[in-house]
Please model this.
Amino acid sequence: MKKLIISFLIFLAVASWGCEDQILNKQSPNEVTAVNFYKTEDDAVAAINAVYDALQYRGLFKNSYWSIGDITSDDADKGDGGKSDGPAWWEFDLFDIKSTNSLLADSWADSYTGIYRANIALERIPAIDMDESLKNRLIGEAKFLRGYYYFWLVRLFGDVPLITEPQSLGDLKVSRTAKAQIYDLIIRDMSEAAAVLPTTYSDGDLGRITKGAANGMLAKVYMWQKDWQQAANYSKQVIDSGVYSLLENYADNFEEEFENGSESIFEAQFMKGGPNGAWGNGSDGTIHHISIAPRNSGTPGLEGWGFDMPTQDLVDEFEEGDPRLEATVLMEGSTIQGGKVYNPEWSSTGYNTRKYLVKRDGFIEDGSDSPVNVRVMRYSEVLLNYAEALNELGRTGEAYPYVNQVRERVGLAPLASGMSQDAFRDAVYHERRVELAQEGHRWWDLVRTDRALEVMSAKGSNIQQHHLIFPIPQSEIDVNPELTQNPGY
Model:
């Protein structure tokens, strides 16, 4: 299942829900509506595919996920082109984030699109006469996805409207809900999903949410709440499942040919060459490649915007001989497309991101329609999550093997034995930074571990306390007077 496609007719079916009470409702008997659509097993599957579809939108994995997660942090600068080129990205780089920021507006709108579709599916699918096992699985997929969309929103904005039922057009003025209640829903949704989802899928359904994805994400949610026992429990369930293992070659995690492999726990699916072009939410590919490829390289297929430039600080974090540096960063001496050598003058930092660049033979047109899936959660992250949780529980001695697995995969020596809890914590933080670099994790790790203000201030940034969450999009406040703005914006 390389791409979960929502057809135009399915879109009409979903979109029509809020319009049922219109006075002028003359419909062709052949028209697909919410009333006559949710009847068959195929309808149920298509409805869930529509819930997945929002993962590929600009406000999630097409754009905002890595943009916010990397560029807001000390791992990356926005890149070249001046402040008029990609101003939304610059705002995060400079901590001058405005309520009109397009990345945030997309994140809000696209997440609630996914939530809206999940709510419809969860209301309508239970009544369909179909295979009960498949029905339960589809409901589990919808619950996980709804929980994930809320997890993205609550980290971005704090308190957000909690909507768990389909809304009509007259019910859109909803106030914000305390983030504790949002987290309650996330945990309930993901727990119920984990109870019914399969551990694996056959080839035709590869890429759908598994039990491992639900358990792995639950562990991450509990880490945000500093519930270390639950974080350890759910991480261990993923490890003990025996389904996942580290790929032998670290760099393979970011190549199209290794998608949905043994290390992948949750991927956002993309493909090139879809019918809706290379841009916007209707496209089947992602703009990740063209966003990060160097400017002015003079190399066909490697011309891009030069965004998400790795910093010297990130490069210095890698230990000598760590092959993850070469897999993550283009630098002086790196070999690129067609055997050409990278020129550090192509970047203001001297570096560009290598992860998720598409090989030349995989290109379509200008590289704006990348087919490479985004690895949202890899098994290495689960190992590090488990190690962190064990250490926070005072079980440092038990945590070593899980960090060492990650290090040994890339040929690095095991951690020194006998570390204190504080020293081991720092070692895990280091390992997370280099293992997950330029994958959209760093900013969230800094916030989750209460280090964002200290770390970013030390780098000379303009960060302040209110920047730990972002402004509610002004476009949403304009249409919903029940919304309030976050302090400081």
